Amino acid sequence: MQLSIEELKQKFLRPLPGALSHLKMSPRNRVDDISGNNPMMPLARRSAVLVLLFPDQGQLKTVFIKRSVYNGVHSGQISFPGGQYETTDDSFEATALRETNEEIGVPGDKIQLIGRLTDFYIPPSNFLVKVYVGYTSQKPEYIPDKKEVQSVVEVNVEDLYDGNNITQKEFYSTSRNSVVNAPTYVISGVEIWGATAMIVSELLDVLR
Question: Which domain holds residue 56?
Fold first, then answer.
């Protein structure tokens, strides 16, 4: 798959599929959260993440991070670059770009924002996440934050469409203190599940 930036922009002008996409990759325990029935949602902390797209060798790719192991609910997980809104941020777009620069070293002036995906609530950390999509015309050079990022992971978008790369896996949920079964993208040993997988699902439906 390879799309020009103008073609990508046009796709994000259409109505977003939202929950219909999220449910495809949702653990069963997340259905109420996706439907907006979680009573904690109005009290959620605000944050923003960036889905960064770029062309490389005839393929459209996107970037994930593998978070460092720490004492927290998202320890060691695959996610998009992003983090909490700070009062010094002019906007949530600024939050997404600032966090991307801090976590993987790609400066905001190298990224063109081309669209948004549906806001997403994450109960374990009580974050309401605004999801932005950015584009850079060439493969980025990364400078990962040594404290927060264990590694940077590039994935071909085409591989995410391949049903052979989707399976059901069990994960230990620190927030629930139990094992959850979740649909998972598994590509070259990288396991993408939970909130990140649900955001990916919507991205794929928008780009389809």
Answer: 5-207
